[in-house]
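Reading group handout, session on sequence-to-structure problems. Before we discuss, look at one worked example. The prompt was deliberately terse, the way you'd type it at a terminal:

> structure GNAT family protein

The input record follows.
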Amino acid sequence: MSWTTPLTLQGDYVVVKPLSLNQAEQFIEAVCDGELWNLWYTRIPQPDQMIAEITRRLALQQAGSMLPFCIEDRHTHQVLGMTTFMNIEPTHRRVEIGSTWYRRSAQRTPVNTEVKRLLLTHAFEYWKCIAVEFRTSSFNVQSQMAIQRLGAKLDGVLRSHQIVQGEILRDTHVYSILQQEWPAVRHHLDYLMSKQR
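And the output record:
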């Protein structure tokens, strides 16, 4: 089975399921919860850009470099956000978890911890990944803290890595979890989830 074959992962709180253009209206409603596109240091689509963003992610899936997901509340079926496996490298058994955003009301809840637990389990236990990477802007302190809370370690900072707009450049913080670290990280995530139940 290809690393970009659509799959569904289910937890206690969320269902992580294949991205589809049919979900566009639900994503538009979700991104309006907090007007997330106003966060200048990250790329979250405005409502009128949502179809183009879904189309972009699905094209990257077809090209073999991304596996995009819709994050849905398991009980209410409300769309909570998007995430992906990206920069997929099956030959080197590496992948990045990124291009993630959550509606404001889902932030600082068990949602992110469970989503990452599901994705990391698939990456390390099914794909047998050697490393899973996370990247975020130097200005996205909330994201940095969330990544560190998972148990990922900072590999380094890519200075002036991306053009945000005009003369504004982004420094990218690169984190990873290694295969040999996964048992401890898995135990830590289970502990975090048990505290939130």
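Points for discussion. First: The first strand starts at residue 9 and ends at 10. Second: The chain has one domain: 9-196.
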